[in-house]
Amino acid sequence: MVKKLRVDFHTHIISEDFPNLAEKYGDDRFPILQNNCSCGAEILVQGKTFRKITNPTWDPIKRMEDMDKEGVDIQVLSPIPVTFSYWSDSQSGLELAKSQNNFIASVVEKNPDRFIGMGTVPLQDVKLAIAEMERAVKILGLKGIQIGSNVNGLNLDDSSLYHFFEAAAEINVPLFVHPWAMLGRERLQKFNSMYTIGMPSETALAAGSIIMSGLMDKLPNLKVCFAHGGGSLPYVLPRMDKGWEVWPETRQTEKPPSFYAKKLYYDSLVYDPVNLKFMIEQFGAKQIIAGSDYPFLLRETPVGRVIDNLEGVAEDDVRLMLGQNALGFLGLHELTKA
Known about the structure:
Elements: E1 7-12, H1 21-25, E2 32-37, E3 40-45, E4 48-54, H2 60-70, E5 74-78, H3 90-110, E6 115-119, H4 126-139, E7 144-148, H5 162-170, E8 175-178, H6 193-212, H7 215-218, E9 224-226, H8 233-246, H9 257-261, E10 265-267, H10 273-283, E11 288-289, H11 305-308, H12 315-329, H13 333-336
Parallel strand pairs: 1-5, 5-6, 6-7, 7-8, 8-9, 9-10, 10-11
Antiparallel strand pairs: 2-3, 3-4
């Protein structure tokens, strides 16, 4: 039996020397990293614990130990979404993005067989974001850019962001959309609902904004993947199609939403094979990419477990979802033949 390459497309990393911009600029909205011991730390925002993390979050050696234990061949590294900081001024946002991109590129450079890097950009300033995207890809060698699901409350279809997507399509940079700054977050404080309910809803809104805006008619080469299986998008698509049908005056697309949804990509982090099977029926196996959300509590262990537990799916499709789709999405077609 041929070994199936296992690629974890959805993992997060932060530098142990993460810059303290809160101190530098006197603004405690910037996240800071407070080390508690050699094995753990906290991310603080406005003096409060945002998230407790363990050393695999910053230590590539620990990550590779986990990868070896779990049978993961390659991880795709991306920043932790709280670090987007789109609310900040353009220059400090660029400083933070550059620091993270440089760090991720350095990790990949030291371990090129185990890691692939995706960067971040200051999307609050589209000109700077495009310039940093070009630097990250063309100079640092990163293979994609992770962006947030909204920019200071603006949905991704906002006209102010169009030139960023246009540039990404033009230079063939794939984008990974991760929820952050959740819609209605003031109502999501109990039961960790921000993570369990807010994130899927926010992701569906981000995907729906792109789908219904006509962006994909204008930029057919744009490659976008959504975290967490697209959130609730797969389950609300029939309702979106119905809305497109009954409100023709609001249409900005040539075809109904489900047509464009099949052109997007989604990670596999839905936990339940029934849900994943539904996604395969909706979008096709070629649009689904294994991702775990390593190293956080809600992660799947190991990546692709939900794919492994599928029944009635062709081995070729399993192979695609576990690794080949990730490499193809990132433009690493030579590795798909390895």
